[in-house]
Every structure is written in C-alpha cells, then in structure tokens.
Amino acid sequence: MRVVRTKQGARIVQEDVVLSEMLARPGPTHTLFDTLAAAIAALSPGPRVAMLGFAGGGVIAPLRAMGFAHPVDAVDLSRDGEPLFRELSSAWAGEVNLFHEDAEAWLRCPRAPYHSILEDLSTPSPLGVIKPYASIDTLPALIRARLAPEGVCIVNVLPLPGTSWDELLHRVASPYGRSFVVTVPDYENRVVVAGDALPDVGRRLREALLRIGSDQVRGMRVRALAP
C-alpha cells in the first residue's frame, strides 16, 4: 500500500485501487465512499454502527458531513491507515473505535446488536484487489447474527474469480428478506443493501448524497435484487 497526499487530505492506494480517500474535514469525497456513507446515514434504523474493513476510514468524512454523529466501531487487521486517519480527522471525526482483529473472529464475539454493519473487505491477488471468499461463505450469516432484527447490512462487492456477479450478490444478501443493488458510474463495484424492513432505499440515498453535494448521485442506479 502507498499513501498519496492530496489537496483535500490523502488517499491509500493498493495496486492502483483507492482503498481509502481521507479528507481533512467533513465533506464529500466524490467517490464510492460517499455512497457507502449514505447507506449508513440514510438507512440505519439506529445509532449503533460497525464497519468491517477500515483502511484509512474513507467513509467517515462524508458520514459526518451527512449529520451522522454517533460512535462507529471499525474492524481491520492492519494498523497502517490509522495514524494517517487520526492525523487528518481526529479534530472532527467524533468517536471512532478501531479494533485490530480479523473480521470473522470479531463477529463471533458476543456483543450488543448493531443497527447497521458495513462490510468493505478486500484482499490483493494476482488479478488485482478482489473480495475475500469469506465474504460469501461465513460472513453473511455472522453479520446477520450481529444485527438487530430491523438492522441493515451494506456490502461493497468486488469481483471474486470463479464466482459470477449474480452469485456474489445473492450470497451476500441471502440472510435477508429484501435487498437492493446500487451501482454508480466509473465503478465495477456493486453495493448491496439488505435487511428485513428496508425503507425507500433509492430516494433516501439520493437525498443524503445531494445534502453534501456528492457527484455520486449522478447516474446512480438502484434495483431490487430478485430472490
């Protein structure tokens, strides 16, 4: 991984993939991190939020700009991004508790239910940055077990060699009664939003993105994922 300083803050890059876009103040990154933040700010039915995969906390600046001021529990095996995140964001980021643990092991520990969990895990491979197999194998059920009954799961879905997009999307959404797929221009990623009692997903996401002036609202598409 390498750090690239920018006028607005810094970004963490791995194999030409931006793992985190960190800002020196709350606001839009004009990247997919805004969409992930909007899914939390607009759809979480309560204040308890967890993030699996933190890197440098690229979601935090747009999340705080959207008015979501509640504590965030974040999980990441690597400590590499934390010093830079604290340097740029400690004055305004609010309470961000970072656990340096494996996401699966962390989920297996009993704790109070969360209202929303963002799964943003990735792993390097000879083909580029991909989704770890655990994201479609063990993690979906573990995440569901850690959510409140009305909770929302948000997954940043990357390719996984040997697995079709259709299978990827359905596997991460399988524990839930309803799910939606969000796509934005210039990204191959799909964002899955899943739960048993979801509100008007498309409208709420757009409202949250417009509130901070994020470019991600342009061309964003939201569709229901058929069973």
What's the level 1 CATH class? Alpha Beta
At the fourth level of CATH, the homologous superfamily is: Vaccinia Virus protein VP39
Quickly give the CATH architecture: 3-Layer(aba) Sandwich
Structural class: alpha/beta
Task: Report the sheet-strand fraction.
Answer: 25-35%
Could you name the CATH topology? Rossmann fold
Radius of gyration from the alpha-carbon trace, in angstroms: 16 Å
End-to-end C-alpha gap: 38 Å
How do the strands line up in the largest sheet? 6-5-4-7-10-12-11-13
Largest sheet: 8 strands, mixed
Number of domains: 1
Describe the structure in your own words:
- This protein is an alpha/beta fold.
- The chain has a single domain, classed as Rossmann fold (3-Layer(aba) Sandwich).
- The chain is 26% helix and 30% strand.
- Strands 6-5-4-7-10-12-11-13 form an eight-stranded mixed sheet, with helices on both faces.
- Helix 1 packs across helix 7.
- The mean pLDDT is 93.
Q: Top keywords for this entry?
A:
alpha/beta; 3-stranded antiparallel β-sheet; 7 helices; 8-stranded mixed β-sheet; 227 residues; 13 strands; Rossmann fold
Question: Can you describe this structure in just a few lines?
Answer:
The protein is of the alpha/beta class and 227 residues long.
Secondary structure blueprint with pairings:
Layout: E1 2-5, E2 9-14, E3 17-23, H1 32-43, E4 49-52, H2 60-65, E5 72-75, H3 82-89, E6 96-99, H4 103-108, E7 114-119, E8 123-125, E9 128-130, H5 139-146, E10 147-157, H6 165-173, E11 178-183, E12 190-195, H7 201-211, E13 221-224
